[in-house]
Amino acid sequence: MHWNCSRRVSELYTDFYTTTEFTDQFKRLGAVLEEFEVKDHGKRPFLNIKMINLNRQTLPLYRRLNDKNKALQNLKKSI
User: Which of 3, 11, 47, 69 is 20 to 30 Å from the Cα of 61, by its Cα?
Assistant: First the structure.
């Protein structure tokens, strides 16, 4: 199962991705299906993309992102 990034994501939280700690969890579970690097015009890597298998083991890792999205939605509703 692949996750469509354009769907059901309301915000991108850079604090989740400032280190590799978040994505390293998926590597430890063997859930990274594919990984590739995007390079700039000077051939320097600036983006690392991982395709992650979503299953019963990996979905709970997204809970903190979901919790943050819900908190933001509640805040917007109260304004």
Answer: 47
Q: How many CA atoms lie within 13 A of 42 on its CB side?
A: 3
Instruction: State pLDDT tens for residues 40-74.
Output: 999 998 888 889 898 999 988 888 777 877 887 88
Q: Which of 65, 3, 52, 56 is nearest to 25 (CA)?
A: 52
